[in-house]
Specification:
about 100 residues; mainly beta; Jelly Rolls; 8 strands
């Protein structure tokens, strides 16, 4: 499905295998685009409270090498993306927007 980014910009997060890292994505829009720019798979969990923890066994994988995932989210309010890798590090870019 086509995606239109919001004006608020992109948030990046570097996820590692030593613990989950939380990225805060503000603005509005009912879709969230996740781009994994690294060579390691990221496992992400998303919520609106900032209390969720990502794990390599129960969280959504975002494959490496510029893989893009777009998911539906709550259209207003802050969204938190937490992530972890099974080894190494990777950078995931989080862009909020809307479906077209």
């Amino acid at each position: 499905m086509p995606f239109s980014p919001a004006i608020t910009g992109t948030t990046s997060a570097v996820f590692t295998n030593t613990g989950t890292v939380k990225a805060t994505v503000g603005g509005s829009g009912g879709a969230l685009r996740l781009l994994n720019a690294g060579t390691t798979t990221a496992f992400v969990a998303i919520d609106t409270t900032g209390t969720i923890t990502a794990t390599t066994t129960a969280s959504m994988p975002v494959l490496s090498l510029a893989t893009v995932e777009v998911i539906s989210i709550k259209p207003t309010g802050t969204v938190y993306v937490t992530g972890i890798t099974s080894s190494g590090t990777t950078t995931v870019y989080c862009t909020r927007g809307d479906w077209l």
